[in-house]
Specification:
eight-stranded antiparallel sheet, 22% strand, 26 strands, Rossmann fold, binds 5-amino-5-deoxy-1-O-phosphono-D-mannitol
Length: 614
């Protein structure tokens, strides 16, 4: 949540920071601001998108000319509404310290009371502002400690999560940064340094980065950077080379990131499998878990924890692992798991799934599972993310940066990883080598099948026309397609703001059937698998109550056309691989409905890409 970019070097800072904010806007977009130093501290901030800040900069940005260092922020509100005064940076009373912050300061209200009683005045309703006044207070109390010492001492008073960047006109050639719970990365350029909440705004300048760990601080000057713990212990940091290009994080000719990411899926799926499966040998090689595979196979139970779309992938993981590897699996919302005192022992394996690798609830579930002695494994997309680093072993999904807030390619990548995991856990135990070969062969064919579904984009757009004015929608599926029904409903509601629910089709008669009338579109996943006959009965039940059915069916199914004119056909596949196909038309349907309704598809209201607060 929220995006941070900082720069120190030889170039004009303001345009560079603005450009960085544009790349970070997917992390938060309700206000934006920047502070630069050109002899004096200059601050501009504005409610709304980075575009609004750009306009302000065009009008009054001359004051920022000549500045070759600065910090900037794009915000997603947690404390205080989206407004100019709640936008970051926040300043101390004498306006010589500026601070930007990602995260939440949990004890901010007691700190604020204390500071108010000492004469400090607050300009905003944010939790973040307490930090800048705290820094001011400790620095005034002992001027010899400097900016670095002041930040260090101030942070000792703070509970909560933060990624911060601080600058001061009293020490003008320095940016002090610190991290606890909110990611920060330093980009190492040629005679210049960048600081950001993720690599997206850095990658066009340099591919060399240093990730800060929780509890670390860095002082970045024009020609150097040093990293220490908040307790002041020097740290040796490894420089990582990023392997994704700027082109990959731009829209690549599509109107929206979401559409680009939907269409990238065949390629992404190949990337996920690349080097990991050998179809003819029936081999699955999962480097990140190889050393732990025997322990994983011996697990008494696997618990999968995740949130949102990643939780839906987890449900599919449950079906896959139980069917093939015969290990009992439970799937928990990370937010429930962490607060319900779950029974977890050292015989359990806990798998956390997260695209961003930074989701606060999933991270907390991971830490709890670790405390209880479970072997904790991660499935993450963002390389070097906190969850990826804190798990004992794991697998990256290699889906590349996902910018659209609605998760699409990350979901299918997660499902493929879970499928490969199920095969690895089954090998030599529960299914024959021949079956593994067969399953892997079918998996390898999925990208091409997905490409065929994507060719139906125009037809799917036509069907979306029939959904666009709905106020509610119901999604039904059974077996492996039940989690897909949940995911389809989530996609529709989060980007088009149409209320939608997903149900196991057989549950319809236990309540939701009461909702069905001519105004209720029902999207039914009716592929040819072992529940096909049952799902046809569900369709009849909907039709007899005048519900409008949109069906996702298997190619060659003529019967379904007798039941509804609105059918999207997908290639045949065995049940376990169907989610990778059936979800594609649902992603496209939501996308088209949302664009037809004029919604901001990539940045739906009230949502952020990475939910790093509870
Ligand atoms: O980054 P994560 O996978 O941990 O995020 C979890 C959810 O916030 C996320 O999947 C969310 O539900 C999707 N953006 C919905 O499309």
């Amino acid at each position: 949540m929220c995006g941070i970019i900082g720069y120190i070097g030889k170039r004009e800072a303001a345009p560079l920071l603005l450009n960085g904010l544009k790349r970070l806007e997917y992390r938060g977009y309700d206000s934006a601001g920047m502070a630069v130093l050109n002899g004096q501290m200059q601050v501009l901030k504005q409610k709304g998108s980075v575009g609004n800040l750009e306009e302000l900069l065009n009008v009054s940005g001359t004051v920022m000319l000549g500045a070759t260092m600065g910090i900037a922020h794009t915000r997603w509100a947690t404390h205080g509404d989206p407004s100019d005064r709640n936008a970051h940076p926040h300043m101390n009373i004498s306006s010589d310290i500026a601070l930007i912050h990602n995260g939440i300061i949990e004890n901010y209200s007691s700190l604020k009371k204390e500071l108010l009683s000492q004469g400090y005045e607050f300009e905003s309703d944010t939790d973040s502002e307490v930090l800048v006044h705290l820094i001011d207070r400790v620095w005034k109390a002992d001027p010899s400690i400097g900016l670095e010492g002041a930040v260090r001492q101030a942070l000792r008073h703070v509970d909560g999560a933060y990624g911060i960047c601080v600058v001061s006109s009293r020490e003008p050639d320095k940016i002090v940064v610190a991290r606890k719970g909110s990611p920060l990365v330093i980009g190492l350029g040629d005679g210049e340094f960048f600081i950001a909440s993720d690599a997206a705004p850095i990658v066009e300048h340099t591919n060399k980065v240093v990730y800060l760990l929780d509890g670390e601080m860095a002082v970045v000057t024009r020609d150097n950077y040093t990293v220490k713990t908040i307790e002041n212990v020097e740290q040796q940091k490894r420089v990582t080379e990023l392997d994704f290009s700027l082109e990959k994080i731009e829209k690549g000719g599509y109107e929206h990131f979401m559409l680009k990411e939907i269409f990238e899926q065949p390629e992404v799926m190949r990337d996920v499998m690349r080097g990991r499966i050998r179809v003819e040998e029936g081999r699955v090689q999962l480097g990140g878990i190889e050393d732990y595979l025997d322990r994983l196979k011996q697990a008494k139970r696997i618990v999968i924890c995740a949130c949102g779309t990643s939780w839906h992938a987890g449900l599919i993981g449950e079906y896959l692992i139980e069917e093939f590897a015969r290990i009992p699996v439970e799937v928990d919302y990370a937010s429930e798991f962490r607060y319900r005192n779950p029974i977890v022992t050292s015989d359990d394996v806990v798998i956390v799934i997260s695209q961003s690798g930074e989701t606060a609830d999933t991270l907390a579930a991971l830490r709890l599972a670790k405390e209880k002695g479970a072997l904790v494994m991660g499935i993450c997309n963002v390389v070097g993310s906190t969850i990826a680093r804190e798990t004992l072993c794991g697998m990256y999904t290699h889906a590349g940066p996902e910018v659209g807030v609605a998760s699409t390619k990350a979901f299918t990548a997660q499902v493929i990883v879970l499928f490969m995991l199920a095969m690895a856990l089954s090998k030599g135990r529960t299914i024959s080598q021949e079956e593994i070969k067969l399953n892997l062969r079918e998996l390898a064919e999925v990208p091409e099948k997905v490409a065929r579904i994507l060719e139906q984009n125009d037809a799917i757009r036509e069907i979306a026309l029939k959904l666009k004015d709905a106020r509610n929608a119901l999604y039904l599926g059974r077996g492996y397609n039940f989690p897909v029904a949940l995911e389809g409903a989530l996609k529709l509601k989060e980007i088009s703001y149409i209320h939608a629910e997903g149900y196991p089709a057989a549950e319809m008669k236990h309540g939701p059937i009461a909702l069905i009338d001519e105004d209720m579109p029902v999207i039914v996943i009716a592929t040819r698998d072992n529940t096909y006959a049952k799902i046809l009965s569900n369709i009849e039940e909907v039709r007899s109550r005048k519900g409008r059915v949109i069906a996702i069916a298997s190619e060659g199914d003529r019967d379904i056309e007798q039941l509804t004119p609105d059918v999207i056909f997908i290639p045949q596949a065995s049940a376990a691989l169907l989610p990778l196909l059936t979800v594609i038309p649902l992603q496209l349907l939501s996308y088209h409905v949302a664009t037809m309704r004029g919604c901001n598809v990539d940045r739906p209201r009230n949502l952020a890409k990475s939910v790093t607060v509870e």
